[in-house]
Amino acid sequence: MRLAVPVVDGATSHGSTPPLKRQGPKDLKDHHSPGNLGVIRLLNKKQDKVTTAQEIIDDYLQRSGVKFEADSMKLPEDAVAGYAKKLDVIRIRPIERFESLDHYYTTLFHELAHSTGHPMRLDRPGIGVPISIEYVHEELIAELASAFLDDEAGIHSTSTIHSNYMKGYIEAVDAGPEVIAWAAGHAAIAADMVLGRKSEAARKLLAA
Ligand SMILES: [Zn+2]
Q1: Using CA atoms, how far apart are residues 73 and 164, in angstroms rounded to an integer?
Q2: CA of 111 to the centre of ligand 1 (A)
């Protein structure tokens, strides 16, 4: 089944809309109304999340050697972010193109997860391939890994953008619980690699 996500020149890229229709993502502006202590606490929490998310990203990029192009103009017109396997580079649009900081960082975590599948790293088959079952499985892995990384960074978004994106892929391949469990296992390994943790599962996978 064809999905509304382009694959260009060995790259996975992500449109500004997920396969399914968006449903009212929360806007960051919600948190900028003038304030009381509750709002200040909320802003401080938001700042902590940004710091943690950015630290995770900076640490992984430095350790892995994955290249990063912020404010990239090299993405397909309808894409907000992508990972190109051939050049081992993550590209993302300016932060203003995203509905919220949560969405920006969750999207970046998704692309970081893709980069762990590069042949030099975990060597997953669904990176930079035409739309296929392997491609969809890779999307499930990247989405689940980004959810794990969100949790690490303290991001617990109520936005439905990413859940709808994943739902689209689950429905596209009619993925049952066993596929989700399989993808979650690979996603946990990918998230561990981003976080610099050497999981037992990863060791076994790399040794096989
Ligand atoms: Zn993806």
Answers
A1: 26
A2: 6
